[in-house]
Protein backbone atom coordinates (compact mmCIF):
# COMPACT_ATOMS: atom_id res chain seq x y z
CA UNK A 1 0.00 0.00 0.00
CA UNK A 2 1.29 3.42 -0.84
CA UNK A 3 0.07 6.96 -0.71
CA UNK A 4 -0.23 8.99 -3.90
CA UNK A 5 2.77 10.96 -5.14
CA UNK A 6 5.17 8.84 -3.12
CA UNK A 7 8.16 10.23 -5.04
CA UNK A 8 7.42 13.71 -3.72
CA UNK A 9 6.40 12.88 -0.15
CA UNK A 10 7.27 10.79 2.85
CA UNK A 11 5.15 7.68 2.39
CA UNK A 12 4.90 4.29 4.09
CA UNK A 13 5.08 1.01 2.21
CA UNK A 14 3.90 -2.12 3.98
CA UNK A 15 5.38 -5.58 3.71
CA UNK A 16 3.45 -7.89 1.38
CA UNK A 17 2.83 -10.33 4.23
CA UNK A 18 1.80 -7.65 6.74
CA UNK A 19 -1.93 -8.04 6.09
CA UNK A 20 -4.14 -10.99 6.90
CA UNK A 21 -6.96 -12.46 4.82
CA UNK A 22 -9.42 -9.74 5.86
CA UNK A 23 -7.10 -6.82 5.09
CA UNK A 24 -6.12 -6.14 8.70
CA UNK A 25 -2.54 -5.89 9.90
CA UNK A 26 -1.31 -9.13 11.45
CA UNK A 27 0.91 -7.27 13.93
CA UNK A 28 1.43 -3.66 15.09
CA UNK A 29 1.93 -1.04 12.38
CA UNK A 30 5.52 -0.29 13.40
CA UNK A 31 6.39 -3.96 12.80
CA UNK A 32 4.63 -4.13 9.42
CA UNK A 33 6.31 -1.38 7.42
CA UNK A 34 8.85 -2.46 4.80
CA UNK A 35 10.20 1.01 4.09
CA UNK A 36 9.42 4.68 4.22
CA UNK A 37 10.48 7.31 1.75
CA UNK A 38 10.95 8.57 -1.07
CA UNK A 39 11.54 12.25 -0.39
CA UNK A 40 13.04 12.15 3.11
CA UNK A 41 15.95 14.27 1.83
CA UNK A 42 13.49 17.03 0.91
CA UNK A 43 10.92 16.99 3.72
CA UNK A 44 12.54 15.67 6.87
CA UNK A 45 15.01 18.10 8.49
CA UNK A 46 16.79 15.40 10.51
CA UNK A 47 17.26 13.08 7.53
CA UNK A 48 18.23 15.99 5.26
CA UNK A 49 21.37 16.64 7.34
CA UNK A 50 22.80 13.21 6.45
CA UNK A 51 22.97 13.21 2.61
CA UNK A 52 23.93 16.87 2.45
CA UNK A 53 26.74 16.57 5.02
CA UNK A 54 30.28 17.13 3.71
CA UNK A 55 31.25 13.49 4.32
CA UNK A 56 28.41 12.06 2.25
CA UNK A 57 27.91 14.75 -0.40
CA UNK A 58 31.58 14.52 -1.40
CA UNK A 59 31.46 10.78 -2.28
CA UNK A 60 30.01 10.95 -5.80
CA UNK A 61 32.07 13.94 -6.99
CA UNK A 62 35.16 12.08 -5.80
CA UNK A 63 34.12 9.23 -8.16
CA UNK A 64 33.86 11.59 -11.12
CA UNK A 65 30.13 12.38 -11.13
CA UNK A 66 29.65 15.95 -12.45
CA UNK A 67 26.27 16.97 -11.01
CA UNK A 68 25.05 14.33 -8.56
CA UNK A 69 21.45 14.74 -7.44
CA UNK A 70 19.34 12.90 -4.91
CA UNK A 71 16.18 11.56 -6.52
CA UNK A 72 14.99 9.30 -3.73
CA UNK A 73 15.78 8.54 -0.12
CA UNK A 74 14.30 5.98 2.22
CA UNK A 75 14.67 3.84 5.28
CA UNK A 76 14.39 0.12 4.51
CA UNK A 77 13.41 -2.14 7.41
CA UNK A 78 14.09 -5.85 7.44
CA UNK A 79 11.58 -7.11 9.99
CA UNK A 80 11.30 -10.57 11.50
CA UNK A 81 8.19 -12.51 10.58
CA UNK A 82 7.00 -10.29 7.71
CA UNK A 83 10.21 -9.18 6.00
CA UNK A 84 10.25 -9.88 2.28
CA UNK A 85 13.24 -10.95 0.25
CA UNK A 86 15.27 -8.28 -1.51
CA UNK A 87 15.01 -9.31 -5.16
CA UNK A 88 18.00 -8.37 -7.37
CA UNK A 89 17.13 -5.36 -9.52
CA UNK A 90 18.58 -2.18 -11.02
CA UNK A 91 17.14 1.05 -9.65
CA UNK A 92 18.08 2.91 -12.82
CA UNK A 93 15.33 1.00 -14.66
CA UNK A 94 12.89 3.16 -12.64
CA UNK A 95 14.63 6.49 -13.26
CA UNK A 96 14.15 8.10 -16.66
CA UNK A 97 15.21 11.31 -18.40
CA UNK A 98 14.55 12.56 -21.93
CA UNK A 99 16.90 12.45 -23.69
CA UNK A 100 18.73 9.73 -21.74
CA UNK A 101 21.29 11.74 -19.82
CA UNK A 102 21.91 10.26 -16.42
CA UNK A 103 23.51 7.35 -14.65
CA UNK A 104 21.90 5.95 -11.53
CA UNK A 105 24.05 5.26 -8.51
CA UNK A 106 22.75 4.14 -5.15
CA UNK A 107 24.43 4.65 -1.82
CA UNK A 108 23.25 2.20 0.82
CA UNK A 109 24.13 2.54 4.49
CA UNK A 110 23.41 -0.19 7.00
CA UNK A 111 21.96 1.07 10.26
CA UNK A 112 21.03 -0.88 13.36
CA UNK A 113 17.68 0.10 14.84
CA UNK A 114 19.03 -0.24 18.35
CA UNK A 115 21.53 2.55 17.70
CA UNK A 116 19.81 4.50 14.94
CA UNK A 117 19.26 8.08 16.03
CA UNK A 118 16.38 8.45 13.58
CA UNK A 119 14.44 5.54 15.13
CA UNK A 120 12.59 7.93 17.42
CA UNK A 121 11.85 10.04 14.38
CA UNK A 122 10.49 6.92 12.63
CA UNK A 123 8.19 6.27 15.58
CA UNK A 124 6.91 9.87 15.32
CA UNK A 125 6.09 9.34 11.63
CA UNK A 126 4.22 6.11 12.49
CA UNK A 127 2.01 8.01 14.92
CA UNK A 128 1.05 10.45 12.15
CA UNK A 129 -0.21 7.71 9.82
Explained architecture:
The chain starts with 9 loop residues before the first strand and ends with a helix. The protein is built from five helices and three strands, in the order ββααααβα. It has one domain: Jelly Rolls (Sandwich). Strands 1-2-3 form a three-stranded antiparallel beta sheet. With 129 residues, it is α+β, with helices and mostly antiparallel strands.
Set out the fold topology.
Blueprint: E1 10-14, E2 33-38, H1 40-43, H2 45-49, H3 54-57, H4 59-62, E3 73-76, H5 119-128
Antiparallel strand pairs: 1-2, 2-3
What's the CATH H-level homologous superfamily?
q2cbj1_9rhob like domain
User: Structural class per helix/strand content?
Assistant: alpha+beta
Major sheet: size, sense and barrel closure?
3 strands, antiparallel
Number of strands: 3
The first-level CATH class name: Mainly Beta
Q: Give me the side-by-side strand order of the main sheet.
A: 1-2-3
Query: How many structural domains are formed by the residues?
Result: 1
- Give the helix level as a range of percent: 10-25%
Low-confidence stretches: 114-122, 124-129
Mean pLDDT: 77
Characteristic key phrases:
3-stranded antiparallel β-sheet; alpha+beta; 12% strand; Jelly Rolls; elongated; disordered C terminus; 129 residues; 5 helices
Describe the structure in brief.
The chain is an alpha+beta fold and 129 residues long. It contains five helices and three strands, in the order E-E-H-H-H-H-E-H. It has a three-stranded antiparallel β-sheet.
